[in-house]
Write a structure and sequence with these properties.
Layout (H helix, E strand, L loop, with lengths): L1 H11 L10 H14 L4 H5 L3 E5 L4 H14 L4 E4 L11 E3 L2 E2 L2 H18 L10 H16 L3 E5 L17 E4 L7 H4 L3 H8 L8 E4 L4 H14 L2 E4 L21 H21 L24 H10 L12 H9 L7 E5 L2 E5 L5 H19 L6 E7 L7 H8 L6 E4 L20 H18 L4 E4 L10 E4 L3 E4 L3 H9 L18 H5 L2 E7 L2 H11 L1 H25 L9 H14 L4 H4 L4 E5 L4 H14 L4 E4 L11 E3 L2 E2 L2 H18 L10 H16 L3 E5 L17 E4 L7 H4 L3 H8 L8 E4 L4 H14 L2 E4 L22 H20 L23 H10 L3 E2 L7 H9 L7 E5 L2 E5 L5 H21 L4 E7 L7 H8 L6 E4 L20 H18 L35 E4 L3 H9 L18 H5 L2 E7 L2 H11 L5
Parallel strand pairs: 1-5, 1-6, 2-5, 6-7, 7-8, 10-16, 11-12, 11-16, 12-15, 17-21, 17-22, 18-21, 22-23, 23-24, 24-25, 27-31, 28-29, 28-31, 29-30
Antiparallel strand pairs: 2-3, 3-4, 9-10, 13-14, 18-19, 19-20, 26-27
Helix pairs in contact: 4-10, 4-12, 5-6, 8-9, 13-14, 14-15, 18-19, 19-23, 22-28, 22-30, 23-24, 26-27, 31-32, 32-33
Length: about 1100
């Protein structure tokens, strides 16, 4: 890569710049270079291109297009400039910059062709930007993208990107005064150049422009033979009742979003024959709400209509368009982040219009942020401007932000970083500093007079007024020097100011918080990000890679039928076909050593015990489970650790690309989400060469996609109950039949104690298949060398899960490792040692023996088994977190049996805690339930806990979180809330009568009757339990905790009123249950590191 960068630097100074040539030969010369690398007119004419010119917003518009079309399922290629840190940013595939290997490969292919032919062309090579344009087009051809998003460099008419003869659709963004030396000094001359990318018979769109620019654009379109339309305001499109959200900050981005909508809609109409419903406005922009009139819509429409330009029709936006606009990301544009007591506001504005938009954004966001600071706030500007831009004009605009200090610096990150890495024609440092010293003098001349300034203007907060005589200015030789001066030792990631540094402003040195605006140049913005935290760019890139994976996974949720919507007779065979497409043939899968587990309740717990035991025993484990709680990577673990993002992306791509490449042979179908994750897990485990695969069934067993495994080492069945009846059947025997379907001929199997009907079906199925199945004994029957058998997962129900794990691990090690285990002699009787009421050992043994099912022999537990059981951990199951005066009891129970176990665990644990609290204790339930589960039945069980309050909420963490991050089929928010309103009414109907309830009085515990032999109840007196419905998990937590958890904000005025008992309590016990997705969301808010 270093050699490539050197060659690129040489191209900066080889040949003339595009706009130093005779304009008449620019495009012909560009075409000649293109043909030298195989980009002939015939090749170029077939490319599916969206071509965009303009002064301000080209990158933003194409970023919106990229996000929309990726959401829509297309493979995108994006060529943009400049880059922030690394030249690879300029060429992106599906949102991800080319990796180093591909960049070097494709660079070499293009460079070598040009170098080999240069002797025939006066030894001329293309200059830097031209070369990267040809390279980008070469990459997109090789990568077979579905759409090319092509950004003009300068102008349009004479830009080297204008070799494209037949773009699918063309766009023009906002025009302004920029590059006047080559485009002209008037708006109409600039518009003439920008409209030069129009092509005959190709559709084109423009955003609202000054009237003289619109007139030139229309004339050029008519002259060329293109049909151009002005885009409507974004709010005139139909968002299906959802609020308008665009991922890029600033009101100016809304018109960019509108242009992107029209470009993508037209592209899909032409290239994919898709149809879009039109919003009927009849030209009436008054349909737009007055509160949304941020784009002077009436005036814009009038300008276009006056000159005869039509307005494009707004459309009903598909979900992919809404999500694409919302999730769009474009680094270095209206971006902010905080380090310690400094907030950096970063925007690469470099035209008059974009600087005005930057000022508006900064004032709005920074003043809002100032209100949250307890103390004084100072403002600093870090600034430079490159080329022939009106730097002083920009500073006049920014001066209204009332900075305490302004620091000027060249685009050198630090002394040991080569400025040429930024790939701009760089002036010597002395020349740059001379320019900045002159700029400092000019700026100070504006700032002579004392001015009284009001900082904050907020309806609820009095303005902060200050008076200053002058803004303090400095010139420093590098970006790191500028940051050090601006931060005044309040960012621990930066070194302290040095003796030789200029003195920072007094206001900044004494401030409690500093707001730093960085603007004027994209190169400056890139350098600042690189200097502040190089890992931040790495993180952004990694996250973008991973974000792309998550978007593809979302598409898999909806681009095919659900796994259990297929005809059951073809489900496993269909799963095998997909697996073979991914290279997972039966022979390949047979290389894996698998423990396969089905059941209704406890599958994850059993396999977590197995994972802990076998890791302690020295094996490398691979664990596949579902669902996840916070991050999809939790589903695939190696040695107890989820895959890191880089590995997840790598393995995802390997599987996805194989399936994508072969889908044309299979009616263009891809596997649904869970199926895909199953194949990816197998692929990971093969690549990672694990010793054991711990494989959890999704739903049922016989028709589950995990049942493509033909030769597991051993099979287990956990506790059965009524769940997924719509698919598995509405009786326990039907459910047992499906669960036992994972048994395989001549392979051992084990089950925990079950209802008698279920045990009989399991035995019949095992006999039918040819599997030998046994019922596990109570965990206490095993010999632990005289030690009490501790299990790491809370709740008595986990002890039978531990017993199943012991038998599965023992059998696995016997078969795969030829290990032997000493057997405990029981002579058919269960031991009275460590007896407990929860396992009903004698009754279980009797039921199994009555139907002819053997009881597995208990064993002498090795130390690894004892330690593995003790140290097992599974997040979100019987877990508690204490913050300040709130204890959260978290359990993902979502079946009747698990809910009963959750209630028992909560009553015991919270009752013990209540006695330790000096004062009153209140109880709150946070609840929801997904799918077709018996939510009211769960609440009837939980009602015995005597909650003071119950709050219902959907599985959305906050306004900033996408519910699909949780990767389940999500109902629209309104539908969820309707469901909870109904559930609230039904729950309140159970709770009408006054019920005598006592709360724990720690001063007189002897008066309280016991719930069990060990634990007193927390008992209160209440007529009714207070209920509430809120739209987000964060709202539910705020309501439940009543300001008693300092990590959460206090209840707001608009929130429902919490129960009086909770507001006056000395401690609150909060139970979170009903859904693993809810539990995951709560953990993500409270303590994400627990996952």
């Amino acid at each position: 890569m270093e050699e490539v960068v050197k060659k690129l630097k040489n191209l900066q100074f080889m040949g003339t710049d595009t706009y130093d040539e005779d304009p008449a030969v620019v495009v012909p010369n560009s075409k000649l270079f293109a043909q030298r690398v195989g980009l002939t007119p015939d090749v170029l004419s077939g490319l599916p291109i969206i071509h965009v010119s303009g002064t301000k917003g080209k990158g933003s518009v194409l970023a919106f297009c990229e996000s929309i079309l990726r959401e829509h399922g297309l493979k995108t290629g994006f060529s943009s400039s400049p880059h922030l840190i690394n030249v690879r940013e300029r060429i992106r595939i599906s949102g991800v910059p080319l990796d180093k290997e591909k960049f070097v490969k494709y660079f070499s292919e293009v460079y070598n062709k040009l170098d080999a032919s240069k002797a025939d062309y006066d030894n001329i090579m293309p200059t830097y930007f031209r070369f990267l344009t040809y390279m980008a087009l070469h990459v997109f051809l090789k990568e077979k993208v579905d759409v090319i998003l092509l950004e003009v460099g300068i102008g349009g008419e004479y830009d080297c990107t204008n070799i494209i003869p037949n773009p699918t659709v063309v766009g023009i963004t906002s025009l302004g005064m920029d590059h006047q030396n080559c485009l002209g000094e008037t708006m109409d001359k600039i518009a003439w150049h920008k409209a030069g990318i129009f092509k005959p018979n190709r559709p084109a769109y423009t955003v609202p422009q000054p009237k003289e620019a619109l007139k030139v654009i229309l004339e050029r379109a008519n002259e060329i033979g293109s049909i151009v339309q002005c885009v409507p305001p974004i709010q005139s499109n139909d968002f299906n009742g959802e609020p308008i959200k665009v991922g890029l900050a600033g009101d100016h981005q809304k018109i960019n979003a509108s242009l992107a909508v029209q470009l993508c809609k037209t592209f899909l109409e032409i290239r994919r024959d898709e149809k879009f419903a039109v919003v009927a406005t009849n030209g009436n922009t008054s349909l737009i709400k007055q509160s949304e009139r941020t784009e002077t819509t009436d005036e814009t429409t009038a300008h276009a209509q006056e000159i005869g330009m039509s307005i494009a029709e707004p459309i009903v936006l598909p979900d992919s368009f809404i999500a694409g606009l919302r999730d769009c990301y474009w680094a270095g544009r209206s971006q902010l982040f905080s380090n310690d007591r400094v907030t950096y506001y970063i925007d690469g504005a470099h035209t008059t219009r974009s600087i005005k938009a930057c000022r508006k954004w900064f004032l709005e966001v920074a003043e809002r942020d100032s209100l949250r600071v307890d103390g004084n706030v100072a403002r600093i500007l870090i600034y430079n401007s490159t080329g022939d831009r009106d730097a002083l004009g920009f500073l006049k605009i920014l001066r209204e932000c009332d900075f305490d200090g302004v620091v000027f610096c060249p685009n050198i990150v630090r002394n040991d970083v080569d400025p040429a890495d930024l790939c701009l024609k760089f002036q010597p440092e002395d020349s740059c500093l001379d320019r900045h010293y002159q700029l400092q003098q000019d700026f100070e001349a504006l700032d002579e007079e004392t001015r009284s300034v009001q900082r904050v203007n907020n309806n609820d907060v009095p303005p902060v007024t200050r008076t200053t005589t002058r803004t303090k200015c400095a010139v420093v030789p590098s970006i790191t020097d500028a940051l050090r001066w601006a931060a005044c030792n309040k960012d621990s990631n930066l070194s302290s100011p040095r003796i030789e540094d200029p003195t920072p402003p007094d206001a900044a040195m004494s401030a409690d918080h500093i707001e730093v605006l960085v603007t004027g140049s994209i190169y400056l913005v890139g350098g600042v990000i690189q200097a502040l935290n190089p890992g931040l760019i790495k993180y952004i890139r990694s996250e973008m890679d991973f974000q792309e994976v998550k978007k593809q996974l979302k598409l898999l949720q909806t681009n095919s039928t659900n796994d259990h919507d297929d005809d059951t007779s073809v489900m496993v065979s269909k799963s095998k076909v997909f697996a073979e497409q991914a290279g997972l043939t039966e022979d390949v899968l047979s290389e894996l050593s698998i423990i396969h587990v089905s059941g209704t309740k406890g599958k994850g717990s059993v396999l977590a015990f197995c994972e802990s035991i076998l890791r302690t025993h020295g094996l490398k484990t691979g664990f596949y489970s579902s669902p996840h709680m916070v991050d999809v990577r939790e589903r695939i673990r190696i040695n107890g650790i989820p895959l890191d993002e880089d590995k997840f992306v790598t393995y995802f791509s390997e599987v996805f690309d194989k399936l994508d490449a072969s889908k044309a042979n299979f009616s263009n179908t891809m596997p649904a989400y869970f199926r895909f994750m199953t194949y990816m897990a197998f692929h990971v485990f093969l690549k990672e060469k694990v010793d054991v695969v711990l494989l959890e069934v999704g739903i049922g067993g016989v028709y589950d996609c995990t049942n493509i495994i033909q030769n597991p080492t051993v099979v287990g069945i956990t506790s059965l109950g009524m769940d997924h009846q719509n698919f598995l059947g509405d009786t326990i025997d039907k459910i047992a039949w499906a669960k036992a379907g994972i048994c395989k001929p001549n392979r051992p199997a084990f089950t925990v104690p079950q209802p008698e009907d279920a045990l009989k079906v399991i035995l019949d199925r095992a006999n039918e298949i040819g599997s030998l199945i046994k019922c596990v004994p109570p965990i206490r029957d095993n010999d632990s060398n005289g030690k009490h058998i501790e299990v790491g997962l809370a709740g008595d129900h986990q002890r039978i899960n531990a017993s199943l794990a012991v038998q599965l691990c023992k059998t696995f090690l016997e078969i795969q490792r030829h290990e032997t285990f000493a057997v405990v002699e029981t002579k058919g009787k269960t031991s009275p040692v460590q007896s407990g009421p929860t396992e009903k050992a004698d009754e279980t043994a009797m039921q199994a023996q009555e139907i002819g099912m053997s009881i597995a022999e208990p064993i002498v537990l090795p130390d690894s088994f004892i330690a593995g059981l003790r140290d097992s951990f599974l997040a979100g199951r019987s877990q508690s977190i204490r913050n300040d005066r709130v204890t959260y009891y978290i359990d993902g129970a979502h079946t009747i049996r698990s809910m009963e176990a959750c209630r028992k665990w909560f009553l015991e644990m919270s009752g013990r805690e209540a006695y330790r609290v000096n004062g009153n204790v209140a109880r709150i339930l946070i609840f929801n339930s997904t799918g077709d589960r018996d939510a009211l039945g769960f609440l009837k069980i939980l009602r015995e806990c005597h909650f003071d309050g119950v709050v219902f909420c959907p599985n959305i963490i906050s306004t900033d979180h996408d519910p699909l991050e949780l990767c389940y089929k999500f109902q629209p928010e309104d539908s969820c809330l309707d469901r909870y309103h109904q559930l609230k009414q039904e729950f309140e109907a159970l709770d009408v009568e006054a019920r005598p309830v006592q709360k724990v009085n720690s001063n007189d515990p002897t008066t309280v009757p016991l719930l069990s032999d060990h634990v007193p109840p927390v008992i209160g007196s209440a007529i009714r339990t207070k209920c509430a419905i809120v739209p987000y998990i964060t709202d539910a937590l705020r309501w439940a905790t009543c300001g008693k958890d300092s990590n959460l904000s206090s209840p707001r005025v608009e929130d429902p009123t919490p129960p009086d008992a909770a507001m006056s309590a000395d401690h609150i016990e909060v139970l979170v249950t009903g859904s693993l997705y809810l539990v995951g969301g709560v953990i993500q808010v409270l303590q994400p590191e627990l996952i």
